[in-house]
Amino acid sequence: MAEVEYLEHGTHNRGALGTRLVGVVAYAVAAACLLPMAAVVLAAVTGGTDTISHLLETVLPGYALTTAILVVLVAAGTFSIGVGAAWLVTMTRFPGVRLLEIALVLPLAFPAYVLAYAYTFILDHPGIVQSTLRDVMGWGPRDYWFPEIRSTEGAALMLILVLYPYVYLLARAAFLQQSTTAFLAARALGNGPWSAFWRVSLPMARPAIAGGVLLAVMETIADFGTVAYFGVQTFATGIYTSWFSMADRAAAAQLALCLLGFALVMAVAERTQRGRAKYYQTGKQQVAQPAVDLKGLKALAAFLLCAIPVLLGFLLPVIILVQMGLESEQNLLSRRYVGFIRNSLTLAGVAAVITVCAAVAVGFYQRVRPGRGSATAAYLARLGYAVPGGVIAVGLIVPFARFDNALDAWMRQTFDISTGLLVTGSIWLLVAAYMVRFLAAALSAYEGGQSTVHANMDAAARSLGQSPLGTLRRVHLPILTPSLLTALLIVFVDVMKELPATLIMRPFNFDTLAVQAYRLASDERLEGAAVPSLVILAVGLLPVILICRQVGRRS
Length: 555
Hints:
Layout: H1 2-45, H2 49-57, H3 60-91, E1 92-93, H4 97-103, H5 112-123, H6 128-137, H7 152-177, H8 180-188, H9 193-204, H10 206-222, H11 225-230, H12 235-245, H13 249-275, E2 292-293, H14 296-327, H15 335-368, H16 372-382, H17 389-415, H18 427-450, H19 455-463, H20 468-479, H21 481-497, H22 500-505, H23 513-522, H24 526-554
Parallel strand pairs: 1-2
């Protein structure tokens, strides 16, 4: 009896110690996610009014207007394409619909800046399209008008083509889950298929659609590669220009604060939409809504409306990039490119592992210690997805640069030793930026899998003498392996594509594929930029293939 009590007491002590350890990690992760935002606010406030006054008189109105125009155009474009395509593949039947409902997800693999490189190559003045027009029509350079790809509208088009799948996936899921009763009632009252769609199906799917549009908007305000290459002046490009070209950290911090405020407003709006997504179905959800068979011109129109986004957002850019790559002099097997690939894989791999471990700590602590503290830690951990990479970079460099400089000054004065920059410009600070930026995606994947682990499993494990960490190791992790692998893959690919934080924070002479593609494109060496872009695209296809498989299973 005494031995049993001792074992129970020992297990309890180990369990309490393990839970406290997980709690410390969870709160540390939450603090790391909060640090860049707090640092940006502090740096902006202490930067003085002269800088912000100068910004207000010069570039700030232009940045705000251009960013707002981009947001409106991308929101309208992703809504139109995403909702229209989702409705057609869900509620109608026409030749090729099964293939298109999967293919419509493929543009998600493209970073917008890679799409920009491809279309600039063919649509710019020396490109094949305008060159062919001049040769065929006999026009001179000033004898005709052609839409300028390097413009705000061009940047919006690139973003629309790669971001509409967010709206498409959520809208399609919402349409599939809707009851057939309300739709049939609208038809019985004399409404045609399109009238019933506008009056019944679309309002019921509004929360999901709004969530998808807001996700696209947040990606838009965070984009740097596309707008920088096209010369479009937004908050994202302003931060980079202020930091590097003007060497004005106060201006960069104040611009970052403006962008942070806008991003957080969008994040709150997105979470509010999710919280209000409560539509109660009175019919049987498992009864599929009747699909309308389209024939003739209607079937052709539906096919073209769904095929054009796939053609413009995936097939044509892939063909262009392959052609560009074949014409370039870049060699993926060269020592230089092997270094780029090694750097990219190292950063992505390390960041993915650390981010997923952080997600497990935050998610598991919220499960074993539900309450205000763990919920707050989880909420702060999710904020990173709404914070653009440039803001996170500024928010981490400013405090750690001050720490490094203060430490170096103290070491010089005390021991006559220079420590240099220990943290600033290191790989680990860049990995921390990735963790803050992409932790929400890993946490969502982990929590999705954790919801399938019944509480009775925890109770059974505890009754068998397992501590919380033992339960996590022996029960949760084996069950959650698919979810954790998905989270690893998502973060890995996101890090491979990430550009603004990498440009600002990367160590000296430590370039990645994304940086190399951006540098070559900035030097107008588009054929060379196609080679690293194709590698990034190939890696980006991995999670998209997983999504396509899920879409195919639900069809």
